[in-house]
Specification:
The complex is a heterodimer of chains A (about 475) and B (about 100). With about 475 residues, chain A is mostly helical. Chain A has a domain at about 285-485. Helix content of chain A is about 75%, strand content about 0%. Chain A is globular, with a radius of gyration of 22 Å. With about 100 residues, chain B is an all-alpha fold. Chain B has one domain: Helix Hairpins. Helix content of chain B is about 75%, strand content about 0%. In chain B, helix 1 (about 5-25) runs antiparallel to helix 2 (about 30-55) and helix 2 runs antiparallel to helix 3. Classes of the chains: A mainly alpha (about 475), B mainly alpha (about 100).
Amino acid sequence: MDLKTLLSFEWGMMAPEFTILIVAVILSLIDLFGKDSIKKYIPSFAVAGIGLALIFLLFQYGHEEVSILYDTYIFDSFAFSFKFILLIGTLLIFFMVLSKQKDEEITDRGEYVYLLLSALLGTMMMASSGDLITLFVGLELLSLSSYIMVAMRKRNKRANEGAMKYIINGGIATAFTLFGMSYIYGISGTTKLVDISREMSSALGTTEPIATVGFIILFVGLAFKISSVPFHMWTPDVYEGAATPVSAFLSVVSKAAGFVIIIRLFVTIFNTGVEGNETLYSSMIGFVAILAILSMLIGNIIALRQRNMKRLIAYSSIGHAGYILIPIVSLSAMTLENVWFYLLAYSFMTIGAFMVIYILEQSEKSEDISIFTGLFQRSPVLAISMTIFLLSLAGIPGTAGFIGKFNIFVGAISADPAQYILVGVMAVATVISYLYYFNILIQMFIRQPEFEGRRTVNKMQAVPLIACITGTIVLGIFPFIALNFFS
Amino acid sequence: MSSVPLQAYLIVALILFCIGLFGALTKRNTIIVLICIELMLNAVNLNLVAFSKFGASANITGQVFSLFTITIAAAEVAVGMAILIAFYRNKRTVNIDEMNTLKE
């Protein structure tokens, strides 16, 4: 490759990724050599960098498909819309980080910031990679950064333990993912997604059992990132051990990235077939459906008996992963739109709920559900915002969560063949989830407060709260804004 | 060319993978668990290199992929050891079954 071909690539398409990369490198250098007076602005620099990347990304709106670096980097509408969610989610999480000026437990705040940025870079590379190798490197960039972020509170025993469980589970999941990828490489002889789908669309013949095994192993490995069954056991422990903004990152951005990679791999590789022939994906749909059903039921049922708020949200996020798997099972033209909308709605409501927990956790020094007792008397603002997020998580009309669930519901019924069992399980799981979401409402509005004094929300804490409330309500009342943006 | 067929390599890799998985799920010592994860990743490398040499459409990509895998596996084990050291400083143990403070 000479200089001329190198320059002929349309590098401008990678502007958002380059921005994040450069900001992360500069911040790590400032953290190493800078004076303390500059260092305290590191999180603000990061927010500015993400804002810049978001602007670059929005300039690419409606741009035609581009693939550079011999198809290893693809820009298409899919990559664009999912990168939008990833950047918005990380931006909100940075506002969460900024809201706490002093942190006794995390002394190395700079590292925290640029690890978040490098994890974001990994997710963005995953969203637009067109090759198994770049996909894997992006995935591992995300995983390794998240392992360190979870372990950041190094004097905290629970954080150590959560991180250790996370890395052991994550290592096994990585091995599974790679083992699946190696089989796929073996039967297709290439790592480029376009070529693999071409190889897969021709008759598989004797290699079909290997392709099936590869499919199952790969899916099991990737289930770790979206925290669905069978790799869901780490979720509650890690969320409890990690600092709250990190838990929010794992439950929103990392999960969105997991869905990105699953859609990219399974829908593009395995779902291309000769017209009329059954594709490998459609013959394996039962397997994915079972995982979706188990995630919905296990997540929501175990959440019933949780008293620690972060564990409760963790189990509910396992349930949500199950909901988002439904459109992937019932493949139709609406699948991408439904997954995208649900993930966007989910980011706003989950980050909002984590923000309320974060504020209360700082003032009460506890994560137990009792921090919510009598919250309406102590701080009506917090109580009402938490109510909005919980109603949205439960899927009550008027909120973004309702529209997301409704779309998934309609999509699954109108798919061919209609997924009545999945829809039924989803309805049951939603009703179960009302029990624990409304229990928190009871704590806030009916119980007498167990903690003294009023709680106020300062300016920095108000920014992410207001953003999340706006997102949840606007998407709930005018969902077509987001849906038009997507298409 | 050697006379060992592709299937033999694949079976060895599968056995290695299963041994690694078994060890990772049952061993008490965290260091052994990390080594078992390495074993699983090495099974992947064996697969990739075997496919790259004897596969239906043999090409060099598999070997490049395995180089990436080796590098990332090294990074992963480094992070794992760092976390383990932080854990050991606080609890003076490396046993998995003593990681039980986080429970419902």
